[in-house]
Amino acid sequence: MPGLDGVELAKQAEILSPGIKIMFITGFAAVAKNSADTSADAKVLSKPIHLRQLVGEVEKLIAA
């Protein structure tokens, strides 16, 4: 995404749609979890992630 990273995209999405559910999947989860730029409500998953775990996390996020 030229000129835009995932955190910035999430911020813009929250502005346009307050209450949107956000999930990050990253190889740098420790950094993402500690970032002041990351939404407090965003779910952060670490790579590698198994498909079953991803599906479960998405289902929990949708249900919340």
Topology:
Layout: H1 6-16, E1 23-26, H2 29-34, E2 43-46, H3 51-63
Structural description of this entry:
The chain has about 60 residues and is α+β, with helices and mostly antiparallel strands. The protein has one domain. About 45% of the residues lie in helices and about 10% in strands. It has helices spanning about 5-15, 30-35, 50-64; strands at about 25, 45. A two-stranded parallel sheet has the order 1-2. Strand 1, helix 2 and strand 2 (about 45) form a beta-alpha-beta unit. The longest helix has 13 residues, at about 50-64. The mean pLDDT is about 85.
Mean pLDDT, rounded to whole units?
83
Uncertain runs? none
Quickly count the domains: 1
Strand ordering within the main sheet: 1-2
**Element order: H for helix, E for strand:** HEHEH
The number of distinct helices, counting runs of at least 4 residues, comes to 3
**Terminal Cα span:** 29 Å
Strand content: 5-15%
What is the general shape?
A: globular
Rg measurement, Å: 12 Å
Secondary-structure-based class equals: alpha+beta
What proportion of the residues is helical, as a percent range? 40-55%
What is the makeup of the main sheet?
Answer: 2 strands, parallel
- What is the total tally of β strands? 2
